[in-house]
Specification:
mainly alpha
Amino acid sequence: MQQPVTTGQAPSAAPRALVGEGRIGLRANLRHIGALMRRNVLQIKKDPESMFDVLLMPIVFILLFVYVFGGSIGASLGGDRQTYINYVVPGMMAMLGMNIATAVGTGVNEDFRKGVMDRFRTMPIARSSVLVAKIVVELGRMAVATAILLGMGFLLGMELKTSVLGLLAAVGLSMVFGAAIMWIFILLGLSLKSAQAVQGMGFLVLMPLQFGSSIFAPTATMPGWLQAFTDYNPLSNLADAARGLMIGGPVAHATWLTLGWAVAITVVAAPLAVSKFRKKS
């Protein structure tokens, strides 16, 4: 009776990249993030049109709101168009992170559709490094958009009534909140079937949050039920904090609320996004 022939090889296991992920150290993880960041930057260099939204969006928005609504809303603030410029530019900084976050979700979705992630799954890298690299590069795009917005604001006559440190703090706070929102859109990009669906969902999320806030206009004249919504809207908190840091006014309460929202969103959305990414890979 013949004995079963053994080859001395262990049964096939999970792909090495998935098995080794838990043993990747911090230094190696940072190297992976750096390499993936370079890959994302090279993609932008190959497709410079992908920067058009970053370059043009701040210019279009500030010109539209300042010259179409600036006179009337400035009067409601007890001033004129100049008063409105000082009011709306810090608010628009809060808006930029939300708009650019949509690109993160669509980018992740497109990478899966094009098979880019199939190459990543064969590499011994932490799955989280792919997502973190994406966020860091998009924060760079957000920094460019913020610089253009502030430049346009100063050209139109915006006044910095506090200090450069206050301005930098407002920019940093916007970046922190923007990074948190990007985790939500990464989760959407991993969950929805197409980039168009991600953009559509982003529109449904962004519109009520942006216009139901203190970004573009004071909330005092809004209906009572809408004021209740704006009070809990994190974009109102961020806009009010940035405004206080740049032109003066209460800062602490709105800043702590913004940081609390950012931490809460990241704690919930980041693990869900990484888990979804592992399963989808």
